[in-house]
Design a protein that fits this description.
- The model has no long low-confidence stretch (mean pLDDT 97).
- β10, α12 and β11 form a beta-alpha-beta unit.
- This protein has 418 residues and is an alpha/beta fold.
- 45% of the residues lie in helices and 17% in strands.
- α3 runs parallel beside α4.
- An 8-stranded mixed β-sheet has the order 9-8-7-10-11-14-13-12, sandwiched between helices.
- The protein binds adenine.
- The site of adenine has 10 residues, from α3.
């Protein structure tokens, strides 16, 4: 078995943490138990490019229980949990290529090493794996049945590929399932981002002006949790509908150029590049903290900050201080990489349970429908989404109502009015 991880001696610690996460992943556990009996992925090779966390570890165990052979690499150079990577290699016999803090060259080498498995299925988080396959390793595409994509940024890239007519196999947009983005993007990003900022800085959030840039599902979650901690939250948006929603949700909404002057903590969650730029840095108060919770490290224009700075030093783990010519200090967290995975442990297992249940069931669906799906970005089948919600409610011990036959009939008729 091939692998490249930091240190296999970390495996026991990683196993303990993976088991801890599993306690919070009852839906995935049920799927794993069924996969163990039915082996729906027998003979299937999967290349997965995901954040290598304890939750991902439990997804890998589930796919393996279904009979799959797996190669896993990281979807971000800073998000790998080295102990978990070691545990997957040592105790689960899974090929892992991921080391926290790996440089860009190693990151891409690891993607290539994962692709060496000659996958039937690609499982991606951000679309880097699919991009390498479609650009540098096209000869392998004929073997691929389909893929899944975990995150908003990846789905946007895949839609661009589809529009250009270059996408060569069906990819299911797991991100777009209700049981994914409503919970993982909102409650997961909300909690884990604030957790990471607090772990990295140990700052009191209450009373601070927190500027949330981007009011998609992740931004909504971050704003909600920052407010819950007592922050005065300002939202910046480019989309009028989302901006209006933020206003009605009770937040102050203004352009970033104005927010830059008053904010204490800036959090980007847009999926776009160069969101916080030179003009913003130039207006920030001394001591301002800037971080990113979007997928890629392009949201903060770090080269601009480097240009403006006369000196730079690391003052705590994941906290870099940039001193500007006029003496002001700006603090960048986690090198502008997604802070919740760089400085904390990513989303809690209870939400990843639903995201990864969708992943496992979508892989099974792709295998069952081999050759019968269009080469497009596809939605998660509604039945899978509903099944994940049902199982999660069941695991939480929550019962819900059912429609009476009269109500069913009423909802499918049109004749009856007032
Ligand atoms: N993305 C965000 N949080 C995550 C986690 N805990 N595991 C895997 N992917 C994630």
């Amino acid at each position: 078995m091939r692998y490249e991880v930091k240190d296999l001696a970390l495996a026991e610690q990683g196993m303990l943490r993976m088991e801890w996460a599993e306690n919070e992943m009852p839906v995935l556990r049920l799927i794993r138990e069924r996969f163990e009996r039915e082996k729906p992925l027998q003979g299937i090779r999967i290349a997965a490019c995901l954040h290598v966390t304890t939750e991902t570890g439990n997804l890998m165990r589930t796919l393996k229980a279904g009979g799959a052979e797996i190669a896993l690499c990281a979807s971000n150079p800073l998000s790998t949990q080295d102990d978990l990577a070691a545990a997957l290699v040592k105790y689960e016999g899974i090929s892992v290529f991921a080391i926290k803090g790996e440089d860009k060259e190693t990151y891409y080498r690891h993607i290539h090493q994962a692709l060496d498995i000659q996958p039937h299925i690609t499982m991606d988080d951000g679309c880097d794996l699919v991009t390498v396959l479609h650009t540098e390793r096209r000869e392998q595409i004929a073997d691929v049945i389909g893929g899944t994509e975990e995150t908003t940024t990846g789905v946007i890239r895949l839609r661009a590929m589809q529009k250009e007519g270059v996408l060569q196999y069906p990819v299911i947009a797991v991100n777009d399932a209700y049981t994914k983005h409503l919970f993982d993007n909102r409650y997961g990003t909300g909690q884990s981002t604030m957790d990471a900022i607090m772990r990295a800085t140990n700052l009191l959030i209450a009373g601070r002006k927190v500027v949330v840039i981007g009011y998609g599902w992740c931004g909504r979650g971050v704003a909600m949790r920052a407010r819950g901690l007592g922050a005065h939250v300002i939202v910046c948006e480019v989309n009028p509908l989302k901006a209006l929603e933020a206003v009605m949700d009770g937040y102050e909404v203004m352009p970033l150029l104005r927010a830059a002057e008053v904010g204490d903590i800036f959090i980007t969650v847009t999926g776009n590049r160069d969101v916080v730029r030179e003009e913003h840095f130039l207006r920030m108060k001394s001591g301002a903290i800037v971080c990113n919770a979007g997928h890629f490290n392009v949201e903060i224009d770090i080269p601009a900050l480097e240009r403006l700075a006369v000196s730079k030093r690391t003052v705590r783990a994941f906290v870099d201080e940039y001193r500007l010519a006029d003496g002001r200090r700006i603090y960048l967290l986690g090198e502008g990489r997604l802070i919740n995975l760089a400085a904390a442990e990513g989303h809690p297992a209870a939400v990843m349970d639903m995201s990864f249940a969708n992943q496992a069931l979508c892989v099974e669906y792709l295998v069952q429908h081999n050759g019968r799906l269009p080469h497009e970005v596809l939605p998660v089948p509604a039945e899978i989404d509903a099944q994940v919600a049902r199982l999660k409610l069941q695991a939480l011990g929550v019962e819900i109502d059912t429609l009476t036959p009269e109500q069913e009939r009423y909802l499918s008729s049109w004749q009856e009015g007032t």
